[in-house]
Amino acid sequence: MLLIGLQATGKSSFFQRRFADTHVRLNLDMLRTRHREGVFLGACLDTGQPFVVDNTNPTREERQRYIAGARAARFRVAGYLFESRIDDALRRNAARERQVPERGLRGTSARLQLPTLDEGFDTLSFVRLVEATGEFDVSEWRDEV
């Protein structure tokens, strides 16, 4: 599974609530280097261990590094695009203990490309954080936001 969206849109919280008991979390914030991430990814692919890529994954090219390997290892690939309004993400980021520099958030926003099924996804969903309740609204993908 690939989580896609700006920083501070709820991706890590979504992982914790939905997949922490069943999937390995691959995340550059935690692993720090692409080499380490690749080692963990390779172990998941080699053993059939379900995993979630909890990075921003903003571009088609960046997503391919995970999709190609997962497809070759016969995984089903699900994508979750998180509602990524820059003003909302900046506000939530300001309230975080560990903040992403504004420049980084805006840079991710500028590069964000909507995912498409033809990238190799089996399913795509749109996820919106409902701030009033802290819950997530997950809807079927409609090739639009």
TrEMBL record:
Gene Ontology terms describing biological process: DNA repair
GO MF: ATP-dependent polydeoxyribonucleotide 5'-hydroxyl-kinase activity; double-stranded DNA binding; polynucleotide 3'-phosphatase activity
Pfam families according to UniProt: AAA_33
UniProt cross-references to PANTHER family, sorted A to Z: BIFUNCTIONAL POLYNUCLEOTIDE PHOSPHATASE/KINASE, BIFUNCTIONAL POLYNUCLEOTIDE PHOSPHATASE_KINASE
Name this polypeptide is given: AAA family ATPase
Species this chain originates from: Tahibacter soli
Upper classification of the organism: Bacteria, Pseudomonadati, Pseudomonadota, Gammaproteobacteria, Lysobacterales
